[in-house]
Amino acid sequence: xxxxxxxxxxxxxxxxxxxxxxxxxxxxxxxxxxxxxxxxxxxxxxxxxxxxxxxxxxxxxxxxxxxxxxxxxxxxxxxxxxxxxxxxxxxxxxxxxxxxxxxxxxxxxxxxxx
Length: 114
What we know:
Elements: E1 3-7, E2 10-12, E3 18-25, E4 34-39, E5 45-51, E6 57-59, E7 67-72, E8 77-82, E9 91-97, E10 103-104, E11 108-112
Parallel strand pairs: 2-11
Antiparallel strand pairs: 1-3, 3-8, 4-5, 4-9, 5-6, 7-8, 9-10, 9-11
């Protein structure tokens, strides 16, 4: 079955960087668009970025130039490089595959705090 497992979260100081990864299994990763979504405490889910099966990237305006989504179709892995992190980036970060059925991982927690 489809499995998405995120890792790479943690505590980081403002201005720091983190690289999140998502290991995908149970489906042909290379043919699917993949996305990152985050959920901050007390808020609803926020879409961050999507990468197409051809590598075309779309991102929400608030992370453009700061966060970069990428994929490794050999290792079936999705990444999110996050730079210049701010306290408001504190959230649970999920990788997701959207479609007729949506699949989400369990998330990895990113905390940005001094």
